[in-house]
Please model this.
Amino acid sequence: MKNKTGYKLLTKTTLIYLIFTLTAFLASTVFLIREADEYINIELERRFQYSEKRVSRSIERAENERFVRDAEIIELSSKPENLFAVTYSDTLITDSESANLEPFRKKTYIVSYDNRNYRVSIVKSISDFYRLRDDIFEALVPAFFILAFGIVFFNYFMSGFLFKPFNKILHHMRAYKVGEKNLDQVNTTTTEFIRMQNLFYSMIQRIDEDYDNLKQYTENMAHEIQTPLTVIRNKLENLITDEQLMQKNGKEIKIIFDETNHLSKLGQTLNLITRIENREFKDTKEIHTKAVIEKHLEAIQESIQLRNLQVETSLSEMHKLYLDPVLLDIILKNLIRNAIQYTKNTGPLKIQSEQDKLCISNYGEPLPFEEDKLFVRFQRNKNSQKSLGLGLSIVKKICDLNNLVLHYTYSDNFHIFTIENMPADIK
Model:
């Protein structure tokens, strides 16, 4: 399963808070602007009513309209169709004090007195009201950004404190190895983290129990099966010494003998894979590989001579790997044994190392199957019943668990296996 790119819980929470805060501010802004407009209308209407009373008194006293401030009174020559029509409009008028165009609201209505009709237009400045409304809106915008910044900063600051136990529990999960008994308890008072930690410890307890049972079963089976296999192998060795029988059934006896040896090694190998996958090899150290490789070549010198193989080596004193020495021995044994088994005498077996790379290559025909199946357990050659076994699968598993990169390439009739240290930025 491919890992999807995820986001931290705190990041999602912060984003939700910001979206909620923005929505709340927008709703609040709309509400406050509406309230401000309603207040402006009520306050203006109150001022209009005050001026209307003065206009009425002026008309009753037959005073000239110039004596009524902010009002224009015009006597109509004919009776208007709608005596009760009232209209409002906004307009720009030059302010007498500032000499600037300022917004005004104009109210126009009809007044009837003593069989005479008058059209009255009253104007009131609304610039102060609009400034108030704009100030409210302008104050909300920076307030939102200040609050948003505060939320982000506070969540970022608190994440190191609140999520510290959570990150420790995750670290324990990543670092856990099957069979590890002494696990540190993370101190936390957060209910969810306590439940998570308890669930983790309960889970690893079940894993340990299942692993111990499986390990014991595998070891018992591997041990118990050796007894009948040893008996079979001894009987076969007795049969092999019988020349008459070997002449008649030598091929069949040899096949049985080889398969018995293969079965004997299979149980041990499967047990080894289980131990490797559960990281039981913990004696990790820095190893310079030149001396180790030379030791392995010396141990198999007889097999190399029997196969009449040519071995070319170019080993660097600087090359080193960081892993358990037992695992390094397993890697070298499997890769060199694989190279010897499948090489042809027409080409050399090459072992080369540089500062950051180890290459083991052998001469041979191209693979009869896809390269991505090379490290699959018991991958078979479609042109042969012979299986590649578990050797390369074990090497791949060891590399994956120890931050090593194993590559396979086929070039110029050579099968090349390369081991490199994984770059630090992707470990």
User: Anything to note?
Assistant: The mean pLDDT is 80. The chain has nine helices and eleven strands. Residues 9-60 form the longest helix (52 residues).
